[in-house]
Amino acid sequence: MERTEVLVSAEEMERQRVFAEQVHVLPHRPKSYHVVTYGCQMNAHDSEKIAGMLEAMGMVSAPRREDADFVIFNTCCVRENAERRALGNVTWLKEVRKEKPEMLIGVCGCMIQEPGMAEKILKQYKFIDLAFGTANLHKLPEMMYDLLNGGERIVQVEDKDVISEGLPIRRLRHDAAYVTIMYGCDNFCSYCIVPYVRGRERSRDPEQILREAEGLLESGVKEIMLLGQNVNSYGKGLPGDITFAKLLKRLDDSGIPRIRFMTSHPKDLSDELIDVMAGGKHILPQFHLPVQSGNDEILRKMNRHYTREQYLDRVRRLREAIPGIGLSTDIIVGFPGETEEQFADTMSLIDEVQYDSAFTFIYSPRTGTKAAGMPGMIPDEEATNRIKRLIDLQEGLQQETMKRFIGMEEEILVEGLSRRSKLAVSGKGKHGISITVSGNAEDIGTILRCRVNGLKNNTLIGERET
Ligand code: 5AD
Ligand code: SF4
After folding, report:
1. Counting atoms of ligand 2 from 1, which one is nearest the CA of 292?
2. Percentage above 70 pLDDT, the chain
3. Which of 76, 100, 113, 389 could form a disulfide with 197 if both were Cys (CB 3.0 to 4.6 A apart)?
């Protein structure tokens, strides 16, 4: 796909900036906003852009949704329960609005992009004032302007793949920041709706990414998290020979103290990337590598393009090159037709790899995906039983894997006061695991060196060295 097709023009971005200024001077504009976010980091970052645009329109953040003049739900549709929760909460707000009739309600994000959803909102959810899909995000100022001037509800969904550069961003943290490097996904794992709602894979210009990262460094950011559905295939379709490994190397040289990224696809995890990580100065020794299943037949039906052995080979290479690396994964249980023996392969893989953490999900059929038409749906009771066994196994293993940090030097980026003690602070170590050390509010946002000397209730305890 031609880049000019995907990049929103500078003129269009300027037009939207002017719309934001025009909303700012409208006397009847909403004065406060609240963004409710569901789903992944991508959505969390989109919410920061929504907040940035709303602030450019003169609105201030309201801590509670029921107090805001404009409430917007940024939705997820990866699993059915995320969708049900979002729709339930939107409907609840309709009741709240009876006491506050001037409140405006908006809904955006992946769920809106599902086939038939726009019609459903138009017919069944008449109380929603504004609904727009992921491709229309940058047009929020214009939509808000039209809504406030015309009074008609607006539903805008387009099936387009766009990249918009230069949106205002209201970041949730000052010390750590998300940086999107690519959008969309071309993998079409058979259970996954993401390629349908987030569109085709497209990568941001590396110079734009570097400029953003340098700006963040100047503003005092200590850690960046590079985001994409499949960061390992970054660069596809861009001019030159840029790869994710090369981008990472350039970012490593730019001096940002800590660099993380997610998500990686095992089939695209190159030796080049592992070597760059191993030789990096600022790339954190942690890796999120979703396996989804430990059984070859299920992996084939999932359209994952790797076998259990090939996955284990990647894990071995990572551990050889980066000893002690923090490893996490995603797993789906109850994929259509999954037998007890096939599930046992997932259990044995977990046992073999010894992850530091695992995100586990019960398979949820998504309309339009290939797996939704596959026979052999696993009954709820059986799927719940499997996920419980998996979680139990992982929790037991985690108690052991965490012990390897005891005695180790670590560095944490302090996120906040510890929940258990007023005299302690906690944050993530370089390997991605939470560590608690003595400290106070002044330490928040700084990097502290410590030596890990204990493990309590699944949290590592460290002794401060700085
Ligand atoms: N059902 C259950 N889990 C899913 N995931 C994606 N689609 C589905 C689905 N239909 C999980 C995968 C993915 C994570 C983000 O969500 O494990 O890695
Ligand atoms: Fe979904 Fe697979 Fe793409 Fe991940 S790689 S977003 S699971 S289709």
Report:
1. 7
2. 99
3. 113
